[in-house]
Amino acid sequence: MLVRTSSPSAREQHVTHPEPPVEHLDVLVVGAGISGIGAGRYLKTSHPAKTFAILEARGASGGTWDLFRYPGIRSDSDLHTFGYEFKPWRDEESIASAPRILNYLREAIAENDLEPHIRFHHELAGAEWSTEQARWLVDVKNPQTGEHHQLSANWIFSAGGYYRYDEGYTPHFEGRERFTGPIIHPQHWPEDLDHTGKRVLVIGSGATAVTLVPAMADEAAHVTMLQRTPTYIMPVPKKDALANLAGRLFGPDRGYAIARRKNILQQRFIWSFCQRFPKAARKLIRFINAKALPAGYPVDTHFNPPYDPWDQRLCAVPDGDLFKAIRRGHASVVTDHVETFTERGVRLRSGEELEADVIITATGLYVQPFGGVPLVVDGERVNLPDTVAYKGMMLSGVPNFAFAIGYTNSSWTLKIGLLCEHFCRLLSHMDHYGLDICRPEPSDPAMPKRPFLDFGAGYIQRAVDQLPKQGDRMPWLTSLSYHSDVTLLRSESVADPELRFSRAAARSVVAR
């Protein structure tokens, strides 16, 4: 018997295989720098049953302290307050170099077993919130391969800071292409740069510039810091004698707690004094500068900013290293404007030409909130300038999204710790009442608003129109006071009339 076998049908030939399920996490932390590592530790301690991952676009942890490699890079805050409250800083130097800080951060990762939670080469490319499902669907990109995949999460905790990691800010300089030597931005420092015996010109006057100048001065023929506007610069001891004494007398844990409290009070006093008595603060800083500089040095030309102390951040120089380099004749400061680059260096508005073999543009950062990730809520793109920051950690109208931005007038990490604690308490509150969604909403839509980062620094002012706003009252006012935030973020209830909680199924507002 002849049996006819039929060929497969078109449907059978094109079998559709189901897509693999999207991995779901309770919390997605973005960034494995000092903020993201802290967030991971607080989550693991306060919510051990929750699933979370820390996405890191680069191939290494440490954030800023692994990215920047320029000579002398160090903290400009003491590590007793810049370090974590849960992990004592045991080094004798409280103003520490980047390698020491990086080692400290990676110790925190190891001690809290966070390595399995960190996913390297995972860049958050987009996030869409669904109120119906009460979760974020995020697009994750591998920067090396360009491949994309998706994750979902109940919460996103943005811990990547506020500047672009892939590009530093350099203003337009006329004639830049004419200069025959290397022009370097500190954010992209070449490993093979040899400045020995060379004339180095550093353009800028902020924390990066005042770090680079003394760090390069001993090997270079001469280092010149060219600034358009002076900055307040204060010498601080590299080693905190009282903190080290407390550690020896009371042990590392209690000694660290004492030093931390002492330095918090000290920072608060200095900032408050500058705010209340700006003229006296200006005179005091000038006196200290004049004493550290050579006799007859033109202090008022190069170290007399046109603004009051702490209208912008004060620059700290450990053991007065910048002043020592000037006194030795290894470094100098010029206050003028760049007219044009030349083949041999830079010609100034005054007509003077500064010759150089290497030019470093220490001209700042590009501010980029939340890594530039587009946020979409129920199909509508979030326009950040239309949002208002709630307690400096959430955005009006954006559910289940938190972020970590530290202090501008004190150690960054002081605020990060409080924000992480508050975030974990918020998760506990929602778990206790069976809530799925948390959305900040101002009760007064007409509330007056102003910039979220109300700070005079150039890198902030260039991006102020791209940032969220803050209100004129709590909880929409961004606090700059650690002591106020201890009450607001650590002590007060997370339940708030300006927070709207709901459950995914009913999506009904629950007042607690």
From TrEMBL:
Keyword NADP assigned to the entry: answer is yes
Concerning InterPro entries, the annotation shows: FAD-binding_MO (IPR051820), FAD/NAD-bd_sf (IPR036188), Flavin_mOase-like (IPR020946)
Q: Which UniProt keywords apply?
A: FAD, Flavoprotein, Monooxygenase, NADP, Oxidoreductase
> Mind listing the GO molecular function terms for this protein?
flavin adenine dinucleotide binding; N,N-dimethylaniline monooxygenase activity; NADP binding
SUPFAM superfamilies per the UniProt record, alphabetical: FAD/NAD(P)-binding domain
Which top-level group of life is the source organism from?
Bacteria
Cofactor (UniProt): FAD
Which family would the database say this protein is a member of? Belongs to the FAD-binding monooxygenase family.
Alphabetized PANTHER family for the sequence: MONOOXYGENASE, PUTATIVE (AFU_ORTHOLOGUE AFUA_8G02570)-RELATED
Q: Report what the protein is called.
A: NAD(P)/FAD-dependent oxidoreductase
Name the source organism: Saccharopolyspora rhizosphaerae
